[in-house]
Amino acid sequence: MTVSAPTENESDADIKTSAQQLKAEQPSRRTVSDFIKQQPLGTIGFLIIVILFLSAIFAPDVAPYDPEEVDFMASPALGGGAPGSEHLLGGDAFGRDILSRLIFGARTALSIGFFSAFIGCSIGAIIGIVSAFAGGKVDILVQRGIDLLLSFPIIILAILVIAIVPKNVVFGIDINVIIAISIPFIPKCARVIRSAALSIVTLAYVDAAKAAGYKGSRIVFRHILPNVVAPYLILITAYIGQAILLEASLSFLGLGVVEPTPSWGLMLAGVNSDYYITAPWMIVFPGLAVTLAVFAFNLLGDSLRDWLDPKLKL
Amino acid sequence: MLRYTAQRLLLVIPTLIAVAVLVFFLVRVLPGDPVEVKLIGEFGDVNPELIYKERKRLGLEDPLHIQFVNFMVGLPQGDMGISLVTERPLTQEIGARITISIELAFFATLLSVIIAFPLGTAAALYRGTWFDYVIRIITIGGLAVPSFWFGMLIIMALLATVGKLPSLDTAGLFEDPMANLYTLFWPALSVGYRYSSVIARMLRSSILEVLAEDYIRTARAKGLYERIVIVKHGMRNALLPTVTVVGLEFAFLIGGLVVTEQVFNINGIGKMFVEAVQFNDMTMLQGLVLIVATSFVLINLLVDLLYAALDPRIRYQA
Amino acid sequence: MNDTQEKNDVLLDVEDLEVEFHTGAGVVRAVDGTSFKVHRGEFLSIVGESGCGKSVTALSLMRLLPRKTAAVKAKKIMFDGIDLSTLPEAEMRELRGRHISMIFQEPMTSLNPVLTIGDQITEPLITHLKMSQKEADIRAIELINMVGIPDPERRITQYPHQFSGGMRQRAMIAIGLACEPKLIIADEPTTALDVTIQAQILELLKDISDRLGIAVILITHNLGVVAAYADRVNVMYAARIIERGSSSNIFGAPAHPYTVGLMRSVPRLDKPRVGRLATIEGMPPNLLAPPQGCRFRDRCPIAEQKCEETPPTTTAPGTIEDHTVACWKNEFAKENAPILYGSETAIEKEKSAHGEKVLLNVNGLKQYFNISIREGLKSHKVDIRAVDDMSFNVREGETVGLVGESGCGKTSAGRAILHLDNPTAGNIEFDGNLLNGGNIAAVRRDMQVIFQDPFSSLNPRMKVGQILEEPIKVHKLRDGKSARLDRVAELLTQVGLYPYMADRYPHELSGGQRQRVGIARALALEPRLIICDEPVSALDVSVQAQIINLLEDLQNDLGLAYVFIAHDLAVVRHISHRVIVMYLGKVMEVGEGNTLYDNPQHPYTQALLDAAPVPDPEIERNRQRTILEGDIPSPLNPPSGCVFSTRCPMVTDECKSMVPELNDFALGHGVACIKIGAS
Known about the structure:
The complex is a heterotrimer of chains A (about 325), B (about 325) and C (about 675).
Chain A: H1 32-38, H2 40-57, H3 59-62, H4 98-134, H5 136-149, H6 154-164, E1 169-170, E2 173-174, H7 175-201, H8 204-211, H9 216-253, H10 264-269, H11 275-278, H12 281-308
Antiparallel strand pairs in A: 1-2
Chain B: H1 2-28, H2 34-43, H3 48-57, H4 64-74, H5 90-125, H6 130-144, H7 147-161, H8 177-211, H9 214-221, H10 226-263, H11 269-278, H12 282-310, H13 312-315
Chain C: H1 3-8, E1 10-23, E2 26-39, E3 43-47, H2 54-61, E4 70-73, E5 76-79, E6 82-83, H3 89-95, E7 100-103, H4 107-110, H5 117-128, H6 133-146, H7 152-155, H8 165-177, E8 183-187, H9 195-212, E9 215-220, H10 223-229, E10 232-237, E11 240-246, H11 247-252, H12 257-265, E12 314-315, E13 324-325, H13 330-335, H14 344-347, E14 358-375, E15 378-395, E16 399-404, H15 410-417, E17 425-430, E18 433-434, H16 440-443, E19 447-450, H17 464-474, H18 481-494, H19 511-524, E20 529-533, H20 541-558, E21 561-566, H21 569-575, E22 578-583, E23 586-592, H22 593-598, H23 603-611, H24 617-621, H25 653-657, E24 663-666, E25 669-671
Parallel strand pairs in C: 3-9, 3-10, 7-8, 8-9, 16-21, 16-22, 19-20, 20-21
Antiparallel strand pairs in C: 1-2, 1-4, 1-5, 5-6, 10-11, 11-13, 12-13, 14-15, 14-17, 17-18, 22-23, 23-25, 24-25
Helix pairs in contact in C: 5-6, 5-8, 6-8, 8-9, 17-18, 17-19, 18-19
């Protein structure tokens, strides 16, 4: 018993013809090939990340030398070490191959970067969602806490945590550094996710779910959470970049990972002032590595934002 | 406006108190005993009784709440305790080195704003041109480049061109302004690169957003000169989110000082901070963190007031 | 006017206007070769549904379209002897705001929030008329007076956010008037405003036009407004003007099937429901790839082979005046207008009768929201009385309409009944059972909801099929996956969609289709009562008719009861058995639909009905209306005594101290006014 003829014409949504708004609404399809087409920069970022990742995983096979292998002939202290056929990117003060150290350093950067961002953002996201959903006094309390933590610059917070948490190396990964870097991310993430969750809670489809008698847990997991995933992913990607930067800074200060763990920041820490002129490659390449990695994650994060949630304010 | 200012000022006080409390407790969680480290450093192996006596002398054996009360009471009087390493009052220690950091921070902010505003605006107004792309690439770099590495590159460039680094004996601003500014210019540039990139990006995107708003269309419909449309109607609104970001990113600037002072070997509180951690100087750490957090809170207060001055919706509730 | 007079009085002569947008997806021809004239002092209305090109036309006349993405071409655009299409930009700028002004739809966003109203009014005066600041300020005060804003000296120094919606629009008119233009273009100026405020603004506009001899182009989708104010009408569809003529002709003797359909799909405020609304099936074409020939072809009930060729614009049959139409079969359309969209007998379908059993009983419902208002350093709590003591009932199969302007509490009442927000006080009984926080879950199946916004009412991450399957699954209404999927297909068909749409995501459907999905979701639980919260307000006129008919048919077939919340009086009259009129949280009048509309007793109801225009120029021309003054008071600060006392034409001192009870004026007809006696 059809009541009115089915509406067949699925012309692409409603074309808003007010001058400023005229873009034919393309159903933003969620396939990978569409992403590549519409977000070329993000794709480039992603590719760089993949390359970094693969080099890190297959470091022993990719790196031409052992990163700890000392070779005084290649040390600038003795006049050598310039980039050339033997050492593509040159040698450091101990004649160790910079390229190999960079490749192994990628392991540290990526693992610390990823874990810190993941832990920090996830904890932050949970706090944000719970706070938004609970509302009332709980929400106000959490907000004050977030504001308080946000009065500290992240490097200061990280250094404080480094000072507090005892050094703990597991599987070659410095847990204390990861904890130190993830903690400053928690309040930032909590704030963004909380406001995303709040804006969703007021939407009509959540009301519809309540009116249909769904349990709270179903509403949170089925209706609210999936719509918070987008900001969450964008945040993680952006913060991996920040985490890599932070790790490099901490290691540079001597407060992050220590020898023999390879780290781009550490490579910059040990540079004697003489080498600034005589061996600039010791400075240029490690810094370039950090820049490239952070750049790639920023590109990806920006593209993800354009793709998933352009209105998101980070 | 006055009423709003008073309001915000009053709200800042509980925040500052909360910060002080947080710092106090955070720092107490430090493992390791600075006294032990210090004594071992001086005398080699040391017996526990001596350590206990030292700790008692320095007030570290007092019950926590007594330490807390002493701390909180001393603060409004300007007493932050004494350094566990040098045993001199913190206010004196920090006071000696804080001026240069303040100068550096201020200089960096000024520089960043001066650079970012014209660039961000131009990038927005000439959107899509090669100029815009260049600016965008530069600003993306600012977010990815580690500020300490940038500082090192600057030093390399200085060494290569001028042959020597700016003098480490940085004269005071009022004693020898030119030398002072010359010395501080480079670290300011180094730490300001990121800051100005963030500001420029925010300005660009907020101008673009504002220019797409309805009231810009109305302004044009009134037949106003394009210049007036963009400056009077556009910029004033675009400034609002930008001002907020300037305040928020200031935290990054303060953090950036820590590494920058290291790279340029500047004897400011950034360097002090790292030293405090290395020497486990708990009270020094406490004092420094307190100062940093407090200054951030105050800067944000200023930013809020500036925002209110610009946005009548805040000044006059409907 | 005779011919020669007409020719001399032509102010704007547009010939062959074309506007193309270059979007990422392709080229869109938003205006496809339209031609029309506007005479001095004339009130022209351009009417059409969303996407037809009416706003783009206005913006292109003012040359306000972004130059990079929009290409505007025309044979000529003669304005008072100057060809706007070839005018250099600097001279065009001088014209804008001086000889041609424009008023926009959203008064909140169309005014600059950081500049004072005075500043924004004096700008064109200083720029165009070269006045000094002082002179301009004086003139600004004059203008503010002229547009009816009280206390002008103080208002000049205030900011837009300190004005109400209606006042902001008046300020916009003041800006438009500043340099005494020859033409004002108003793009949907009242769409975002309440009915009584809308009437004020339109009357003001008309008054200014008449007194100062200013021509007005009013762009709207509201046919009532067109009938009340326009001298001439351009009807646009899919970027073309498909019919053009005097208001009387367009309404009285439409010659294009689309115009005919439009007229017959709009419910009437002033007549009892005659039958189902005529519906124009389908949707407007995608302008990225418009069909060949007549663009209305796919939806037209009388389309034939010939229509594959674009019909020329010809003079409508039987008229001497300038009434043109673009349809091959315009004569046929004109003569057979009443039956174009279904035979008389098919359309005339009686409204279903309702049962006698009371399904929903609301007694003394109060919904107060407690919020803190900060004043300086202190903050105090204030109760917003969204719903203040409301009682009514709904019987099986009945539609009770809840109507009122913003802040009246109709939406809050709906939400309170559904317990989406727990009511502050009052008894709500469903099927004899008193509802409270505890047993509401049991009742959820029986009482469902449809929302206004088709965009935000569906979870964007779930497919349509999943959205519909979920309630079935949660309430275990069917056994097993395949049984559930069958039911989903059934539901989709029931609301007029194809079953394969279950595989689509909401953003792939149109607004009307999404609304149908929302209805299907409500039906999935097999409810007995559905609360419809403005279900058609966000839809185009032709789609509205489809949804209204759908709701009525479902009521017939399934015996559903509705609480129909809306602000559109005509729609409410059409669909409701009984109607409740609300104002600031209180019930003003309640009664059987036709009785209430034909014989309103409460002064507010009378004013409301007076304010709403009817799509019939003859009636509008001869109407006596009393337009209410002032703004709707803020719920934060309701008037003492009768909430309507601040605007009531019959107010006396007594009204300010007594809160009137809802008295029975006649059987089943309640009125809350101390001046109206009980029976």
